[in-house]
């Protein structure tokens, strides 16, 4: 038999891994592929598989493996392109392969950093009561570029941001110790740590002080702050 006479002599399903198949060439185990790759390259017993074609098969197998891993990852939660890249890198996929997978995901609409930034900004503000400065830092950590970040922040309604700061601070206000200025400072520090702009933090804190001085105190909520929340 000539060196280039490489023939598939066995195709066997892996019992422990559904959809994967072991390929033997000239009676010796060569590699394992997913069913999609098996079908695409028509890897059947008796087929010729020269070295160059085998390299194509293995490249496609890696591409498909990276793609499936990415789909599983974004299936659990919306992800940025950078998060997908980092995940695939941690799984050992090559940079060029990762780039191709991310391009495919973007084309299919599975990865969209602009939509991701907008959704995260809205969620952090409305559900987590985090201000725009916190959101900006988080989007930067997740690899969202500056332009998309600023567009997402610009879409936030300043009135809603103020209201969320008010809801957070008004729940905490009854547990704040000290005189008027001390309470204002502590509430402002809380809101600043949550990423609310300084003017919003001051406006909310001063309104709380004014209302408390008129006798309009607030009931202590179930999730009131502990002493660790305050400077």
Strand ordering within the main sheet: 1-2-3
Total DSSP E strands: 3
Helical residues, percent: 55-70%
List SSEs in N-to-C order: EEEHHHHHHHHHH
User: How would you classify the helix and strand content by structural class?
Assistant: mainly alpha
Helical stretch tally: 10
Largest sheet: 3 strands, antiparallel
In round numbers, the mean pLDDT is 90
Give the overall form: rod-shaped
Radius of gyration equals 28 Å
Low-confidence stretches: 218-231
How much of the polypeptide forms β-strand, as a percent range?
A: 5-15%
Q: Please give the alpha-carbon distance between the first and last residues.
A: 81 Å
Can you give me a brief rundown of this structure?
The chain has 231 residues and is mainly alpha-helical.
Structure description:
This protein is mainly alpha-helical. It contains ten helices and three strands; from the N terminus they run βββαααααααααα. It has a three-stranded antiparallel beta sheet with strand order 1-2-3. Helix 3 packs antiparallel against helix 4 and helix 9 runs antiparallel to helix 10. The relative contact order is 0.07. The C terminus is likely disordered.
């Amino acid at each position: 038999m000539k060196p280039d006479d490489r023939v598939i002599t066995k195709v066997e399903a892996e019992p422990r891994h559904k959809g994967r198949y072991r390929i033997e060439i000239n009676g010796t185990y060569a590699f394992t592929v997913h069913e999609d790759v098996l079908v695409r390259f028509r890897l059947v017993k008796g087929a010729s598989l020269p070295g160059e074609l085998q390299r194509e098969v293995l490249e496609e197998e890696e591409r498909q493996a990276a793609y499936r891993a990415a789909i599983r990852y974004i299936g659990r939660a919306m992800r940025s392109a950078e998060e997908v890249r980092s995940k695939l890198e941690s799984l050992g996929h090559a940079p060029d392969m990762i780039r191709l997978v991310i391009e495919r995901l973007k084309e299919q609409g599975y990865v969209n950093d602009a939509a991701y930034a907008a959704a995260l900004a809205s969620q952090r503000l409305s559900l987590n009561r985090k201000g725009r400065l916190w959101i900006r830092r988080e989007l930067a950590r997740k690899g969202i570029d500056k332009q998309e970040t600023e567009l997402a922040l610009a879409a936030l309604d300043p009135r809603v941001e103020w209201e969320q700061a008010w809801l957070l601070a008004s729940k905490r206000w009854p547990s704040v110790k000290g005189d008027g200025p001390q309470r204002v400072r502590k509430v402002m520090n809380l809101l600043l740590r949550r990423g609310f702009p300084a003017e919003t933090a001051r406006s909310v804190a001063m309104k709380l002080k004014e209302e408390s001085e008129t006798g309009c105190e607030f009931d202590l909520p179930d999730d009131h702050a502990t002493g660790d929340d305050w400077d």
